[in-house]
Design a protein that fits this description.
The structure is a single chain. With 112 residues, this protein is α+β, with helices and mostly antiparallel strands. It has one domain (5-104): HIT family, subunit A (2-Layer Sandwich), CATH 3.30.428.10. The protein is built from two helices and five strands; from the N terminus they run H-E-E-E-H-E-E. It has a five-stranded antiparallel beta sheet, covered by helices on one side. It is globular. The termini are far apart. The relative contact order is 0.24. Bound molecules: adenosine monophosphate and zinc ion. Zinc ion binds next to helix 1.
Amino acid sequence: MSDCIFCKIVAGQLPCGKVYEDEDVLAFHDIHPFARVHFLIIPKQHVATLGDCTPAHEKLLGKMLLLAPRLAKEQGLDAGFKTLINTGRGGGQEVFHIHVHVFGGGDPVSRS
Ligand code: AMP
Ligand code: ZN
């Protein structure tokens, strides 16, 4: 997808603060973090949304989720973390290349 910013990051055409990379996935710091630690886990292949996934993506999705606790710990989130997958316009998705938000360690959003 030539107009997809996350595909451009995967291709090295845009910079990112890399957290992790292997042959299937890439993780990098969110450019507008909403917690002290906030990074995204994305597949290297372009998949627009969770709603576009099929059983063919089962292994990839599992890999992305299993990376979350490992990378969160490496980023210092020993006490736990949050995950978020926005799906579709109604789900608040802005970048249409599937990604798992992993964040924690200080939440500036007050719920009181
Ligand atoms: P979403 O609303 O789930 O689609 O979230 C997209 C996220 O991608 C937002 O939190 C953005 O701050 C983040 N983002 C957009 N562009 C970049 C970029 N070039 N590098 C890192 N994060 C980005
Ligand atoms: Zn893409």
